[in-house]
């Protein structure tokens, strides 16, 4: 019995006891819906038929509470609501709404349990159910983990249907005609004689009746929007440069702030000399903030310049000062006392490895930055015991609570205004920009203060992806992969993030330390996987695809090495080992797409990567050419199964973006530390894929899985191992450490 099985049962029992210990309260709280936050500020004649639909005489507003970080979440949510509400794009406005427990994310429980995403046994789904209860009671409103689509798909369609049927009921009261005889189309209720009532016209009546909660969702054959090619709501604004982000906000009387915080993250500010900055043009105020100093000026550029003029004596870093110390800590973590969990122990690994042809390899994945195009920023106004904050954030209720903690006020006195974000990739899970802006605003009550990070400050306080290492030993027998013993050691980004929330790490195994490696659908006869938790080093955070971004590389690349040692075909051997029908179809599809098995040509190579993460099996084939001057990536084929492709255009964009993200960071990117400070400070020294390096990418979305999933993160993990395999095929060079440009050049 593997150790993780014991942990899973223990966690389940503890959770069951906790629920059973408060059955009456817990069950009531779980079944009782959260209050509709829209009802608090309704005007006369307005109707908030659900927490997602608000109608008045002038307009229809659809609430899209999942943060739009550039990934199209707002359009996706609006599409689901409009599908059932019978609205056309252009007939409504969208709003992110306010932080509210009503917008809790039901899908967050899926990745938080130590079970395979495709395991729907009683213990697995029972634990997901328990976590779901906790998520609801706590009202955890959040965007991330590719959960926006699975959380929204049924919930928002139902909300749209409730609004539709309630409007039909209002039309029935107005006309005296039974609802069964009424139809809806294009924002109107239509009577049998052709008379039309607009939704806005019906809003005052609908506001006074009980919502109709017994509704029937439309069949896929009736869908007008879902699964169809529609234009995202933000395309025009983004194409014309008129989309407004947090960094663009202006307000009467607003001042601008820049910060300098100890670049040794968590280190103290010993002293500073601001005399050179105090007399600079436009400088209004210089104030101390946590571990640093802020300059307030009449525009952003002057604040930046003055901050650069200040000299500092920074305290030491609470982690190793250079990379040798970081890697040594990781390498020294492959010991029993740091074992987080033995996730798998199938067959008899020790006996299998004792004889036959063995393969050993060690892999490394570095720290990497999030580097969204829009640097962190926040606009805060503190006045009369109330705080208003305008910022883009992935967990608005947590952000609201953080502001309240810093300001020493009740969270209800914090009014959070969600903004569109210019990228995140996990970066906008953090709170440093929010807490620092609040600290500055507290020293300037009544004045709106907009804090903007310089790119360099953003990199210095990025909370990068975790550093990690893997050690693999395997055996091949009779031309087949027979045994794998894979160990990984990595920092826990989960623990790091939870600590910044002032909480302790939860009990049980850390799923992100093992993500993308332990749960792959390959039935190797003898397979053991162990995950070791490295003590905290530089603080880290979730990065697009989280643990699977590195562990997926380790597992897929090592399997590729073993297949080569066995003399087998990389696709055929994976298909032979594959024990999951959905994954098998994904592999077969990408093989057909890429004409796998044909000769790639002289000086060319073809590589396959497969990682199942966030419940989505993704296979990628990368084709490269060894030009003599370096490696050129020519073409990428991708197959992925998310159960249901809600928006084909955005699906295609997500997959292509994920591939470019995964390839670019595998090629070029790492954060290194010297004297406790990040050595990379901007795009020129943490360079992703350039436009001229971007390959043609061909995408196929499959719909065989029984449960709908998100696609924001799953395309990232297979990219690195597919590229490494392609380079090996073209050059014979095995790449086991990212970034690959340490060992090969790219053109």
Question: Which key terms come to mind for this protein?
Answer:
747 residues; alpha+beta; Aldehyde Oxidoreductase, domain 4; seven-stranded mixed β-sheet; 27 strands; transmembrane helix; transmembrane; Isoquinoline 1-oxidoreductase beta subunit
Describe the structure.
This protein has 747 residues and is an alpha+beta fold. The protein has three domains: 33-105 and 140-240, 2-Layer Sandwich (Aldehyde Oxidoreductase, domain 4); 250-317 and 376-452, 2-Layer Sandwich (Aldehyde Oxidoreductase, domain 4), CATH 3.30.365; 323-367 and 464-742, 2-Layer Sandwich (Aldehyde Oxidoreductase, domain 4). Helix content is 32%, strand content 22%. The chain has 21 helices and 27 strands. A seven-stranded mixed β-sheet has the order 10-11-8-18-15-16-17. Strand 19 (468-477) and strand 20 form a beta hairpin. Helix 12 runs parallel beside helix 13. The longest helix has 28 residues, at 148-175. The radius of gyration is 27 Å and the shape is globular. The model is unreliable at 1-30 (pLDDT under 50).
């Amino acid at each position: 019995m593997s150790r993780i099985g014991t942990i899973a049962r223990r966690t389940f029992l503890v959770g069951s006891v906790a629920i059973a210990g408060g059955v009456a309260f817990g069950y009531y709280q779980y079944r009782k819906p959260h209050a509709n936050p829209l009802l608090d500020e309704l005007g006369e004649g307005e109707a908030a038929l659900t927490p997602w639909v608000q109608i008045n005489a002038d307009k229809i507003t659809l609430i899209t509470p999942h943060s739009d970080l550039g990934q199209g979440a707002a359009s996706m949510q609006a599409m689901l609501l409009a599908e059932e509400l019978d609205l056309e794009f252009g007939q409504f406005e969208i709003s992110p709404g306010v932080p509210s427990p009503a917008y809790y994310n039901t899908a967050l429980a899926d990745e938080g349990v130590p079970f395979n995403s495709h395991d729907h046994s009683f213990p697995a789904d029972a634990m997901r159910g328990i976590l779901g209860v906790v998520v609801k009671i706590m009202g955890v409103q959040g965007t991330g983990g590719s959960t926006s689509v699975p959380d929204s798909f049924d919930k928002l369609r139902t909300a749209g249907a409730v609004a539709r049927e309630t409007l039909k009921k209002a039309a029935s009261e107005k006309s005296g005609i039974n609802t069964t005889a009424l139809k809806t189309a294009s924002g109107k209720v239509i009577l049998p004689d052709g008379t039309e009532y607009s939704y806005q016209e019906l809003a005052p009546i609908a506001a006074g009746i009980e919502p109709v909660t017994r509704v029937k969702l439309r069949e896929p054959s009736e869908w007008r929007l879902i699964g169809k090619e529609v234009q995202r709501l933000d395309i025009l604004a983004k194409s014309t440069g008129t989309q407004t982000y947090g960094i663009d906000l202006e307000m009467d009387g607003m001042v601008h702030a820049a910060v300098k915080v100890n670049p040794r993250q968590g280190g103290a500010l010993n002293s500073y000399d601001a005399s050179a900055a105090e007399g600079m043009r436009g400088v209004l105020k210089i104030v101390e903030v946590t571990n640093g100093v802020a300059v307030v000026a009449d525009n952003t550029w002057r604040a930046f310049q003055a901050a650069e003029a200040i000299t500092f004596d920074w305290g030491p870093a609470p982690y190793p000062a250079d990379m040798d110390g970081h890697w040594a800590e990781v390498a020294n973590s492959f010991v029993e006392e740091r074992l987080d969990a033995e996730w798998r122990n199938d067959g008899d690994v020790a006996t299998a490895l004792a004889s036959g042809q063995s393969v050993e390899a060690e892999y490394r994945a570095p720290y990497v930055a999030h580097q969204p195009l829009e640097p962190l920023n926040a606009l805060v106004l503190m006045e009369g015991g109330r705080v208003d904050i305008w910022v883009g954030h992935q967990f608005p209720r947590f952000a609201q609570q953080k502001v309240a903690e810093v300001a020493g006020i009740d969270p209800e006195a914090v009014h959070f205004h969600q903004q569109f974000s210019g990228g995140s990739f996990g970066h906008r899970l953090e709170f440093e920009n929010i807490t620092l802006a609040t600290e500055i605003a507290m020293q300037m009550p009544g004045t709106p203060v907009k804090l903007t990070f310089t790119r360099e400050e953003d990199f210095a306080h990025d909370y990068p992806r975790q550093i990690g290492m893997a050690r693999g030993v395997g055996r091949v027998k009779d031309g087949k992969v027979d045994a794998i013993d894979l160990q990984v050691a990595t920092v826990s980004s989960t623990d790091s993030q939870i600590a910044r929330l002032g909480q302790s790490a939860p009990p049980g195994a850390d799923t992100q330390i093992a993500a993308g490696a332990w749960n792959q659908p390959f039935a190797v006869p003898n397979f053991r996987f162990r995950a070791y938790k490295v003590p905290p080093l530089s603080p880290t955070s979730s990065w697009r695809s989280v643990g699977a971004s590195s562990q997926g590389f380790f597992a897929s690349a090592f399997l590729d090495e073993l297949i080569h040692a066995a003399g087998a075909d990389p696709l055929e051997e994976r298909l032979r080992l594959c024990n999951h029908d959905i994954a098998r179809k994904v592999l077969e599809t990408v093989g057909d797409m890429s004409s796998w098995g044909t000769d790639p040509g002289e000086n060319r190579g073809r590589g396959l990567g497969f990682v199942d993460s966030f419940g989505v099996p993704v296979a990628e084939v990368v084709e490269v050419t060894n030009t003599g001057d370096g490696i050129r990536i020519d073409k990428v084929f991708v197959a992925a199964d998310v159960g249901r492709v809600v928006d084909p255009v955005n699906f295609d964009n997500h997959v292509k973006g994920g591939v470019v993200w995964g390839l670019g960071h595998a090629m070029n990117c790492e954060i290194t530390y010297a004297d406790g400070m990040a050595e990379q400070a901007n795009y020129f020294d943490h360079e992703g894929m350039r436009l001229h390096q971007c390959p043609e990418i061909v995408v196929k979305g499959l719909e065989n899985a029984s449960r709908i999933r998100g696609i924001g993160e799953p395309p990232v993990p297979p990219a690195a191992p597919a590229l490494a395999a392609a380079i090996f095929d073209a050059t014979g060079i095995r790449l086991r450490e990212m970034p690959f440009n340490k060992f090969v050049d790219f053109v």
